[in-house]
Amino acid sequence: LMSLNSALETFPPAVESCEDEVALCDLLNVRTLDWGFDTLAHPTDDLLAIVTEVFDYLELPVRFGIPRDVLLRFLEQVAERYNENPYHNFSHAVDVAQITLALLVRGEAIDLFTELDVFVLITAAVCHDVDHPGLNNSYLVNTRHPLATQYNDSSVLEKYHLDVTGSLLADSQTDIFCGLSHSERLEAWNSLQQIILATDMALHKEITDEFRERLGSGSMLSRRRQHDRLLGLKMVMKCADLGNVTRPWEVGMPWSHKLAEECILQ
Fold first, then answer.
1. Spatial CA neighbour of 99 closest among 250, 91, 114
2. For labeling, which of 48, 51, 134, 190 is most exposed (least CB within 10 Å)?
3. What residues are labeled active site?
4. Following CA atoms 39, 41, 46, 50 in sequence, which dihedral angle do they give, to the nearest 10 degrees?
5. Among 61-65, 107-111, 168-172, 189-193, which is the least confidently predicted range?
C-alpha cells in the first residue's frame, strides 16, 4: 500500500468541467475516479446517484447479493441521517467514498484487500460521520454532553456513528449485509467497527506510527494477514477522510472554509 502522496503522483490531472449539459451517467463515468471531483457542486439527488455508482463500479451489489431496493433505501436513510452541518454532512460522506474508490483503483490499494474488505470499507466511508452533531469529541466531553456520558468519554462520536450504522443494518429494509453468511457478517461488523473508530483523531498517531514502522522496516503489508489488511483499511479510510485538502485548490479550499465555519459555530 503506497502512501497518499505517492498515490497522488500516479493520478492524472483533473478532468476539465463540461460546458454543456451532459447526462449524469456520462459525468459519473468520467468523474467517479477523478481526483479533481467536486462533490460540493452536486445536489443531494446527484450525490445519491454518485455514491450508488461507487457501489456499482466495484460490483458490490452483485458480489454480495444486495437487492437494489435495499441498497437504495440504505443510502437514502444514511443521507437523511446526516445533518445540515457546514462540513460533516452527506456531501462529506460522498466525498470520502469517492476518494476511497480512487485510492482503491488508481492507487491500487485494492490489491491488498479481499472483496469483503472492500465492501466494508466503502460502507464505512459512507457511514463514518452519520448523524454528526457538528461538535467535536473534546467539546462533547468538556460540556458533559449526554453522548459523552453514554460512551464513557472515549471515541464518543465514532461509537455513536457505529451505533447509527448498526441500527440501519439491523433493519431488514436497509440491511445491505443481508447476503453475507454468519461468519462473513461477524467479520464485516468487526472490520467496520475498527475502520470507523480509526477516524478518531485521538488515535491518529498510534495508527500512523504503526504504518510508518511497517514501511520503515521494509516489511510490506500482506493480504494473507488480517491484521495487515485492517491496518491498510484504516490508512485508506484516514487518507480519504482527510483527503479533500489534497484535491486541486479550487476544489479543496471550499472544504477548508466549511470546516472553519463549523468550528466557529461550535
1. 91
2. 190
3. 88
4. -30
5. 107-111
